[in-house]
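Worked problem 6 (solution included).
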Amino acid sequence: MTDSTDTLPQYRAGIELFNNCEFFEAHDVWEELWAEYRGPSRTFYQGLIQVAVALHHFCNGNVRGAKKLYHSSRAYLDPYRSVHLGCDLDHLFLEMEECFGEMLAAEEGAPAVEINPELIPEIHLNEEALAKAVNGQAGEVVE
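Solution. The predicted structure is:
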């Protein structure tokens, strides 16, 4: 799968699940897309998968897994900043920093930090930027 119009339904479905705090389900949808996808946004999808799993781990008290995937998700997504396929990555990174900040600052062996539900990030999708990306404009990498 390389055509961006083919990926949009799964991409959008994953965002909807993510924004409903259904992180593992978002991961499943994006992982299915990623497994079949062979275009230049492959690592972008991998980064979204890792963001979702990082939040899933954090919500379930797996601080070690959450930290690891927080850092790797940023490494995968950073090359696509600031907006890619309509996804406002700068905003997502800011919200991730706010959500994970206390946990990341905690020293090894400190009591576990629980996720603050008010700080759980959402993915903000810019429809105009997404349309331009799908149509090969705006300098975004297009499948």
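Discussion: Residues 138-143 have pLDDT under 50 and may be disordered.
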